Amino acid sequence: MSIGVFDSGVGGLTVHHKLVDRFPDADFIYLADQANAPYGGRGGEEIVDLTRAGCIRLFDQGCDLVVLACNTASGIALRRLQQTWLPGYRRALGRPVNILGIIVPTIEAATGLPWEHEAERRGDKVEKLDVLAVFSTPATTASRVYEIEIDKRRQDVAVFSEPCPELARMIEAGAAAEALAPIVQGHVTAITQRIGRAPDRAILGCTHYEIIADLFRAALPPGTPLIHQPDATAEALARYLERHPEFDAGDGGLRRFLTTGNPGPQPPLVATFWGAPLSFEAA
Ligand code: DGL
Question: Cα(71)–Cα(47) distance, rounded to whole angstroms?
Answer without folding.
Answer: 11
